[in-house]
Design a protein that fits this description.
Elements: H1 3-11, E1 24-30, H2 38-45, E2 52-57, H3 87-101, E3 106-113, E4 117-118, H4 122-130, E5 172-174, H5 175-183, H6 188-194, H7 201-213, E6 224-225, H8 245-253, E7 257-260, E8 265-268, E9 274-275, H9 283-292
Parallel strand pairs: 1-2, 1-3, 6-9
Antiparallel strand pairs: 3-5, 4-9, 7-8
Amino acid sequence: MSDEELLRRASAVPRAVESRRKAKVAFMFLTRGGIPFRVLWERFFRGHDGLFSVYIHASPDGEEEPPEDSVFYRRRIPSKPVEWGRPSMLDAERRLLANALLDASNERFVLLSESCIPLFDFPTVYDYLIGSALSFVSSFDDPRKAGRGRYSRRMHPTVTSAEWRKGSQWFEVQRGLAVGIVSDRRYYPVFREHCRPPCYVDEHYLPTVVAKLAPGLNANRSVTWVDWSRGGSHPATYKRRDVSLRLMERMRSGSECVYSSNNNRTTASSCFLFARKFEASALGRLLLIADAAKRWNWH
């Protein structure tokens, strides 16, 4: 079906999972090709059928299908070419969300790249997301040129400069908010028309729109670790030599954040469930660490 028909159908789905259904987490992979950490993810998913769904948006001329016994087999959605920093990136994200929303059991939706890995076992990730009262979309006011400086006055009055936000592309949202995103016909055209490089739509659309649509239902942080400490327009890339148990532990428990469950609000020592950006060469080291750290339970 066309993108318009897909979004129309996804906009009409229920905003909550019926109580008789077992809630699932939709893992949405936005990739340039294959899944280099497929073996690691297959360990992560093993034994948890019925609690997750997988969707892949890849280059139309991407790699061949994985083996039939893989959770990634035939999980690629109809995809179109994507250009970094362009509206086509946002189109791909909305395409993934819309496809995932058609499964009435999907309650949480997480966007991942081919360079992402899980930091915990599946039960930990599942409980963390399903038990949260909030979505996880990084959204903040950045007064610098790379933040407010990207705002175009042509967006006014639909989006004002005071409402302009920036954040990470890698989001996690609950079902009601996901429906709101694919249903958006007010803000999306404005961003598509007026947010062009050096304004990058994937860094501003969701942070701004989520702050407007559901300010009280967002944790204002991402659950995907990214290292920007080295500066530049792209985060640090982890090669094989960089991977160690110490690095993994720092990603898993090296910070504090607020976690709001459906029952209470607590301070959590684990703020990140996933991490990027790893080179494919790191797979062997990651598997060795997973084997050594039995409590990660990736087997």
